[in-house]
Structures are given as C-alpha cells and as structure tokens.
Amino acid sequence: MKTIKAIKEITDIYYKKDKRVWAQKVEDKIYVTDSYRVWVFKDEDFILDVDKFKNVEITNFFNEEGYETGIKTNELVDMEKFTGVYVTNEDKSIKALLNKKYLDVFENYTLKIKGEDKPILIYENDEVVGLVLPVRQY
Questions:
Q1: What is the three-state SS of 78-127?
Q2: Within 10 Å of residue 97's Cβ, how many Cβ atoms?
Q3: Residue 137 has pLDDT above 80, yes or no
Q4: Does the pLDDT of residue 11 top 90, yes or no?
Q5: pLDDT of 103-122, one tens digit each?
Q6: Which of 31, 126, 118, 135 lies closest to 66 in space, CA to CA?
Q7: How many CB atoms lie within 10 A of CB 22?
Q8: Could you tell me the pLDDT band of residue 138, with boundaries at 50, 70 and 90?
Q9: What pLDDT is attached to residue 19?
Q10: What is the DSSP letter of 62?
Q11: CA-based, 20 to 30 A from 81: which of 68, 97, 103, 137?
Q12: Can you tell me the distance from the alpha carbon of 135 to that of 109, in angstroms, rounded to the nearest whole number?
C-alpha cells in the first residue's frame, strides 16, 4: 500500500468532509473507513492519532467466506463524478463496478469478490489491506 498517499487521502477526507472518518484498532492493525472503503494499516505504519477518529466496528466486514478471485477488467465507465472499473469473478457470473480512484493507493494487489453488491476485498502479499464497496447500479 502507498501508505503516505492513503494517509493523505484520509486526512483530506477528515478535514473536508466534516470529520467523516472512523477507525478501529484491533491488535496490531488499524482499520480506517470513510464509509466507501476501508484501509488496513499495520499499527507502526499509521502515523495519525487513531483516537482522533470516531471508533466504530469495522472488522465485521472482513468475513472472507464465499469470496472468489476477482479480476479487474480494462473496461472503464465514465460516471458523472468518477471513472469506474469493473471487477468480475473468473467465470464472469459476478460483475461489480468500483470507483477506479479507490484502488490507486494499493500496489501489486489482488482482489476477491463475492457479489455485485458485496464489499470487494483487496490483498497485498496474501494479506487483507483494504476493502472497497461497489457502486450501486440501478
């Protein structure tokens, strides 16, 4: 994960969006969310004061049961406020739309997908480092 870039995004959201950032510390991990995505930091890498953020239960979103390998497609979707990218499973029976920008802080990542409306898990080196909620499509 590009830790400094992620922390800058969190700081920007905190000050520009009326402090709409929540965090949870569990053992040696810090989970931070803006309600659209979750970043997972090692405690020693998180340079902000976790106590400044509202405490909320975040880890319950990380149940990995039923998830499959996710594949980011090259199909970009121009939405009104962002560019989206699709993630599918291997047999393409699931197709979820993500805000492409939300993946920018991750490096050499793999994805796991469960459904079109379920959180998408992000891994680096076989360790969960984030989660992104898909865009609702009506």
A1: ECCCCEEEEEECCCCCCEEEEEHHHHCCCCCEEEEECCCCCCEEEEECCE
A2: 17
A3: no
A4: yes
A5: 999 999 999 999 999 999 99
A6: 118
A7: 17
A8: low
A9: 77
A10: -
A11: 68
A12: 20
Q: Which among 137, 100, 83 has a CA at the least distance from the CA of 115?
A: 137
Q: CA triplet 22, 27, 18: central angle to 5 degrees? A: 10
State which amino acid sits at residue 88.
T
Residue 66's nearest CA partner among 119, 103, 108, 26 is 119
In 3D, which of 6, 2, 48 has the Cα closest to residue 25? 48
Across the chain, mean pLDDT equals: 93
Q: What burial letters (b/e) apply to 113-125, b meaning 16+ CB within 10 Å?
A: bbebebbbbbbee
d(CA 135, CA 84): 8
